[in-house]
Amino acid sequence: MKKGRIIIDREFQVAQTDPRIYGSFIEHLGRAVYEGIYQPGNPYADENGFRRDTLDLIREIDVPVVRYPGGNFVSNYNWEDGVGPKELRPKRLDLAWKTIEPNEFGLDEFVDWCRIAGTEPMMAVNLGTRGAEQARDILEYCNIEKNSKFAHMHRANGHEKPHDIKLWCLGNEMDGVWQTCAKTPMEYARLAEETAKMMRVVDPSIELVACGSCGINQPTFGVWDATVLERCYRYVNYLSMHMYFAYDKAAGPADFLANTLKMDEFIQSVVAICDYVKAITRSKKEMYISFDEWNVWYHSKEADAKREPWCFYPPLLEDVYNFMDALTVGSMLITLLKHADRVKIACLAQLVNVIAPIMTSDTGAWRQTIFYPYMHASRYGRGTVLQTKVDCDKYDSRNFTDVPYLDSVVVDGGDQLTIFAVNRDLEEDMELTCDLRQYKDYRLAKHLVMTCDDLFAVNTEADPNRVVPTTTNASKFEDGVFTSVIGKHSWNVIVLEK
Ligand code: AHR
User: Fold this and answer.
1) Are 301 and 318 in contact (CB under 8 A)?
2) Residue 146, class by beta-carbon neighbours within 10 Å (0-12 exposed, 13-18 middle, 19+ buried)?
3) Are 280 and 349 found together in one domain?
4) Of 115, 321, 403, 410, which sees the most CB atoms within 10 A?
5) How much of the chain exceeds pLDDT 90, in percent?
6) Which domain holds residue 350?
7) Which of 27, 80, 140, 293 is catalytic?
């Protein structure tokens, strides 16, 4: 049996986690909004039409922030279409996903929904077909209390108090050729700079996210990020990053589970670019990362390519996640946490029905496999991330070398210490030892394990509990040393309490 050893020192700290690292995302895409969170007439809907069953599952995760309304959708969206009397709202072509947007749910409904869900809105403005002027208007509508056109409009639409939205994205993936009105690096850099300046005048208390390269394989990766930051450094707080992983059958599961090495490399590269621009602009300010789209995404692509265009909320991007995807999501969470000093915001893309941990039908809502690592990290992973030294064997796969079998991170939450660990080994269990000599006065509260004989097993409406976490009693914590045998291909959450 292979061995893994984790050495922890409470003085060696990465950073305090920003709770927003457990954010998510709802786009006007497929059945995310309609039938996902909003479905008037459904037996689960409340008086606003919000699905109560979905709200319950979102509260179970404890999602601190939700990005909205896109995504690719936002680059062709007129936010004004989605406010005011519903009978006057137009139906529009959504060019990103080739559907019809009915505009029955819009900005005000979203903010009302956020308040009920116990989460904060993170709003994106359209820098594709539109620009600085509409960004000014939507911010005025949301955050200015009185005496102006959009403040009046906001009140007339039934909201006495401003929404007071603090976090704003300056467009979405503007370097992507698929984006409506994509930009060159300098086109976007100047547009984002002037939009940010204008928005900061309207409300200086907001935080702004500029679009970074939407992938490490983008042709302009690096140049894009440096160009954008050279223009915008002083006006923005975060640079965005996006990353999705797909399973490559030929490379196999061991390679799939190693993908987070690439995510780690991507973060390190973007942080280096941020620091380069900090240096050349002689800035004292630190630029942070908003990793505002991340997930596994591949199951639905073939079916989606065959869909009829111009329908109302067709089932798009409805990946049915298997157990192996949950392990990858667990590793992605570990990677984000390891960079908690720079990654302050991260959004699992997305939240309901569209590449999501939560699925709905007309008759109920259920948890996909990836729900669990996300929920565990959000519930047990808040506090100070410690620099964790891991000793273990490594392997090579088709696209990666020196992949540690053990992927782990530790979060000290004060009276609670959590060890998150993925055993990437597909063949063997692992003897795990954690040296926790400074935590001798703690006790082992629980060891949650998620594993399954079948890497490809899924949860469905008919069989929603095929892959679920269990608790093991086989682990020990004695005299400051935690020992356990963690199963091959398993996700582990070890919680110690004072
Ligand atoms: O999350 C799905 C899509 O992925 C988003 O709309 C877009 O930003 C990204 O390409």
Assistant:
1) no
2) exposed
3) yes
4) 410
5) 99
6) 18-380
7) 293
Is 293 known to be catalytic? yes
User: Is residue 120, in this structure, part of any structural domain at all?
Assistant: yes
User: Is 248 within 8 Å of 257 (Cβ atoms)?
Assistant: no
Instruction: Give tens-digit pLDDT for 261-282.
Output: 999 999 999 999 999 999 999 9
Are 185 and 149 in the same domain? Answer: yes
Question: Do 303 and 432 lie in a common domain?
Answer: no
Whether 173 sits among the annotated catalytic residues: the reply is: yes
Cα–Cα distance list, 282 to 213, 361, 389 (Å): 23, 54, 34
Reference 259, options 457, 399, 388, 355; nearest CA is: 399
What is the phi/psi pair of residue 267, to 5°?
-65, -45
473 C-alpha vs ligand 1 centroid, how far in Å? 41
The encoded tokens of residue 428 equal: 């063997």
Token readout for 159 is: 């909201």
Considering the entire predicted model, what is its pTM? Answer: 0.97
Question: Residue 388 — pLDDT band, cuts 50, 70, 90?
Answer: confident
CA distance 72 to 101: 13
**CB of 241 closer than 6 angstroms to any ligand 1 atom:** no
The domain tally of the chain equals 2
Give 90-122 pLDDT, tens digit per residue: 999 999 999 999 999 999 999 999 999 999 999
CA distance 480 to 406: 21
CATH of the domain at 121: 3.20.20.80
Counting ligand 1 atoms within 8 A of each CB, the residue from 28, 169, 242 with the most, and so the one to mutate, is: 242
Residue pair 428/486 in contact (Cβ under 8 Å)? The answer is no
DSSP, collapsed to helix, strand or coil, labels residue 295 as strand
- Our answer on whether the CB atom of 260 is closer than 6 Å to any ligand 1 atom is no
Instruction: Please say which residue of 355, 380, 405 terminates a domain.
Output: 380
DSSP per-residue string spanning 166-190: -EEEE-S-TT-TTSTT---HHHHHH
Is residue 86 in some structural domain?
A: yes
